[in-house]
Specification:
The chain has 272 residues and is α/β, with parallel strands linked by helices. The protein is built from seven helices and eleven strands.
């Protein structure tokens, strides 16, 4: 069965996208998607940088919700549109995230690590002056810290996201090099009843593998993990549903029989 739900999407309501939501919906319909879940960025306490105000990643949720409601009505019967958010998790924003997550009736909440100890891993300075292994180790440790401190999310997004922006990207990177910390992360998620995301967004950035890497997906399944969503992490119309055929093959190879879609914070299981 093809994957017909893209559950990680950003429109112009996110600070790093300029694409109107309706354009993305029309593209999703044209591609034959049955479900699209928008997960606009909400990153509290994002650090300011020269030329960049950190408030750019604060989500104006009411206009987002109103536009989504308008499009849900306009395209009813053609596609299911779901109300999601991608929360940028970090200890400094713990209380703000906790209050915000309870403030709206979301269908789906992705917890993600974009910031590691005050630095956005998107920028090269996170990796400068040390080995790639040391930087990624710090990132994974901070991810574990976030999971231990915050629970109001449904899946953790792009678990090895920092690899996307590391020198050489995923060249020379392997799950086995970080097995201990990755196992702690996966076991903590499973203990809390949380799922993970297969995120295809790294492919367009030149990666060879998805987020997380295939061996991590296999390990999640070995540990009993079943809740997995699929997201393109698209910020434009060009990458909606990107590499979903390959994603289905990878999931089946890793032992998954189903993927999930969340509505009203409850997972639906769809046959792969």
């Amino acid at each position: 069965m093809p994957i017909t739900a893209d559950c990680h999407l950003h429109s112009s309501f996110s600070g790093d996208s300029h694409t109107p939501m309706e354009e993305m919906v029309l593209q999703g319909i044209a591609q034959g998607l049955e479900t699209m879940c928008f997960t606009e960025h909400q990153d509290f306490d994002y650090p300011d940088r020269e030329g960049l105000d950190g408030n750019i990643f604060l989500l104006d949720t009411d206009p987002y919700l109103y536009d989504l409601a308008r499009l849900k009505e306009k395209y009813a019967g053609k596609i299911r549109l779901l109300f999601g958010v991608e929360l940028g998790l970090q200890p400094e924003a713990l209380r703000k995230n906790a209050v915000y997550a309870k403030s709206y009736e979301f269908d789906f909440i992705i917890g993600s690590s974009h910031i590691c100890h005050g630095k956005d891993v998107y920028y090269p300075d996170f990796f400068q002056g040390r080995s790639k292994e040391e930087a990624l180790g710090e990132y994974f440790q901070s991810t574990l810290e976030n999971i231990r401190k915050f629970s109001n999310f449904d899946v953790y997004g792009h678990l090895d996201y920092a690899v996307r922006y590391a020198p050489g990207k995923d060249e020379g990177y392997s799950y086995s090099a970080y097995r201990d910390i990755f196992d702690d992360i996966l076991k903590e998620l499973l203990d809390k009843g949380k799922g993970i995301e297969l995120n295809t967004g790294g492919i367009k950035k030149g990666m060879r593998d998805f987020h997380p890497c295939m061996d991590a997906l296999k390990r999640y399944r070995e540990l009993g993990g079943e809740i997995i969503t699929i997201g393109s992490d698209s910020h434009d119309t060009a990458h909606i549903g990107d590499s979903f055929g390959r994603a289905a093959e990878v999931l089946r190879e890793c032992g998954f029989q189903y993927y999930c879609v969340f509505e009203k914070r409850n997972p639906e299981f769809h046959k792969l």
